[in-house]
Each structure stands twice: as structure tokens, then as C-alpha cells.
Amino acid sequence: MEKVGIVGYHQVKLYSDANYGRYEMIFEAVRGAMDMAGLKKKDITTVVSATNDYYDGRTISNCFTVEVGGAYLADESKAEMDGAHAVLYGLMRILSGNHKLAVVWGGSMPSCYPYHSTRLYETDPTWERPVAYVNDITAAGFQMRAYMEKYGVSVEDIARVAVKNHKNAAKNPLALQEAQLPDLTVQDVLNSEIYADPVTELMVAQPCDGVAALLLAPERQARKITDKPVWITGVGYNQDPYYLGDRDLATCKSMELAGQMAFKTAGISDPKSEIDVAEIFESCAHEELILMEALNLAEKGKGVELNTNIDGDLPINPSGGAIGGNSPCATGLIRIIEAVKQLRGEAGAYQVKNAKKAIATGQIGMCAQNNIIYVLEGEQ
Question: What pLDDT band is residue 1 in, cutting at 50, 70 and 90?
């Protein structure tokens, strides 16, 4: 079986309220990825989008994005999940042998819809949704409190994760401007508005407008397109139970199982020593710790002790992560693109030295209910 490589990518800058339309953003992302790879529209054989009908406000919303997404007269479909899940769909299509170039794009514009209200549709329709007490905001509070109490982690420890990611975002020109905070302090994070105690505003990955795209090709084709392909050597995915009460929110079993699956495929036995950089989709600062521990990058409850700065022992989210900007349906895809940048040496001011092997994750659902992870390796 041929390897599958990532041969091009493009991310539109993230905005809290973009001053141009979603279709232009989609076109810019897809066209940018194609231009990077030196390809034409005729080279596309399949397009997979990551959008959500609830976010877009209409059924089968991807039918309106066919032309701008490069799918006119080409095979086209949609993954109504995170962009990282759409990459899995594209990967499967390439591995089937039926396609030579897959375009995967994802994104949305939460400036045009009530993001948090829309996410109420993830809750139980009989008991939870009518009263709206359980939602993505309050669930984050439950999760952070459970983690702190189980492992004796302080709110200051979690605030330091937020400070790190906001400072990293300040080095990333594509990050959300409001998230680029180079002078942020732990006290600033703690003094920001309470979302759901103990979660504060500056610990949260704020929804924003954005679109990203990448290109997948089988090995033979990939080597013709670029001399710097990034290979997908492992992928894993899993999902936790639907109800929050059926889960241990202080840990993440779905990420643990997804990681085991991906690492086994990639031949990784000791992730902490073998991974050079990680891009983890953290919807709130505490999730970075929970998810990295689930991936055995640190012992349970000990994630705060690991130096995850850009020049640290294991850099995590050097781009700023989702805290640097969370565009629904694009955030996991952007994590993959950021990992690809690191492996190609194209991350600029936040480049990790000698990055040869990376992981990138995506998620959907409350409290990281469903997780997917990729192991990526640069051309040696």
C-alpha cells in the first residue's frame, strides 16, 4: 500500500468578524493550497469539506460550496465534523486507489450565527436542552473542576497554559488578533471574565471566522508534486459516551484509545521521546493537559510539570493552538497544517528546531467527546 502525503496547504487568517464572505474565504483557501503545489483545477479528483448544517443554517449546505471549493465536475462530499475528520475521509479515498488528488477544506463563520446557542443541539433534547443548564460552556467548567480536584492541579497551573498559548499566538500572523497577547500574565487570565467557574474568558478557545485547506496525494503522485511531502504514518480515532455523567471528565478515554491506535500504526512505542512537536486541539486551556496526558506525553496529573514551550522539552501548540483562534470545522485541520509547517521548516517565528515527527489532533462534542489524532513525518 502506498503512503499518503500532504503536498499543499493554505489557511486564511482568522478574524472575529471577517470583512469578506465565506465563499471568498473558501476559494482563497483552496486556491492557495493548489497554487502552493503548482496544480490546476483539472488535477482535482475528489473534494471533502468539513461544514455543519446547524452552523450554516440550512440543510445540505455544502451544495453551495461546490464551485468555490474546487469540486465542480469532481467527486465531492462532506464530513459534518471537525476538519481533522474530513482529512480521514480524504485519506480513505486516496487509499482506495480511486483518487490521485484530494482537496480537504473546512471552516465556518461564527460571526454570522450564535455559536454557543447552536451547540445546545448537542445536548439531550428532553431533559437538558429546554433548560440550557448543560452546554459547552458549563461542561467546560465541570471538566476543569474534575481535573483539578482529581490531580491537585491549581487554577494558576492551568492559567499558565493559557498564557503560553496566547504568547505563542502572538508569533503567528494567521492567529486571531484578539488572541495575540505577548504580555499576558497569569493574573490577567485569572482576572478575566468568568465563563463557568473555574474557567475564565482567556482560558477559552474563542470561536472565529476562518477556512483552511490541504491536499492529499498517494506516494508516487506526491513525489512528483513536491520534494517536501509530509507523510501520514498513523491515525487513530475514538469516541466517549454521550452523557457527561457516564464519563470521567478528569481524563479522556477516547483520546487515550485514539492515541494507542495511531502510535501502533506509526510504530511509536514512547511518544514522549519520539514526538518532536504536538498541535493539540484544546477548546479550553485545561484540555491541553488532559489530552497530552491521555497521549502519554506526561503522567496523569503531571502535565503541568512538562516544559511545553517552543524551545522546551516537548513543544505543544507552538502556533497558539485553538486558543490562538477556534474556527469551527477548521480548527483540527489547522492543527494538521501547523504540524506540517513545523516538519517542512515553514513555521517562521514559532519554528521548533529539528522537528521530524509530529502529532496533530481534532475533536468534536462537549469536553472532547470525540477525538482523532494523526502522526506526521517529514521527508527524511
Answer: low
Question: CA angle 138-142-144, nearest 5°?
Answer: 110
pTM for the whole structure: 0.97
Print the domain residue range for 78.
Answer: 4-114+209-225
Q: What is the pLDDT of residues 312-351, one digit of tens each?
A: 999 999 999 999 999 999 999 999 999 999 999 999 999 9
Q: Kindly report the CATH number assigned to the domain that includes residue 56.
A: 3.40.47.10
Beta partners for 106?
50, 212
Indicate the pLDDT class of residue 243, thresholds 50, 70 and 90: confident
Reported as a single tens digit per residue, the pLDDT across 262-291 is 999 999 999 999 999 999 999 999 999 999
Number of domains the chain is built from = 1
Residue 306 forms part of a structural domain: no
Judge whether 169 lies within some domain.
no
Q: Is residue 14 part of a domain?
A: yes
* Rounded alpha-carbon distances, angstroms, from residue 73 to 59, 137, 162: 21, 42, 45
pLDDT confidence of residue 12: 98
Residue 48 lies in a domain: yes
What is the distance between the alpha carbons of residues 50 and 84, in angstroms, rounded to a whole number? 8
